[in-house]
Specification:
This protein is an alpha+beta fold and 64 residues long. The protein is built from 3 helices and 2 strands, in the order αββαα. It has a two-stranded antiparallel ribbon. The protein is globular, with a radius of gyration of 12 Å. 2% of the residues are buried.
């Protein structure tokens, strides 16, 4: 997922932090705003779901 995000928005993303955790957590936030929460939805993200939400937030990727 990190490769997909960095590949699509490498010119628009200043940084990306991955924080390992325990207990099946999967939370994604951008500038402090949650864009996906496994705890809230009760499921893991589907393929492309996080990238789609990121695209909604920061705009279409260059060249796609």
């Amino acid at each position: 997922m990190a490769e997909e995000i960095l590949g699509r928005w490498k010119n628009r993303i200043e940084g990306l932090t991955l924080r390992p955790s325990r207990g099946g957590r999967f939370e994604v936030s951008v500038n402090g705003k949650s864009i996906f929460s496994k705890a809230e939805l009760g499921r893991h993200a589907e393929a492309g779901e996080v990238a789609g939400r990121l695209e909604e937030l920061i705009g279409a990727s260059e060249g796609h």
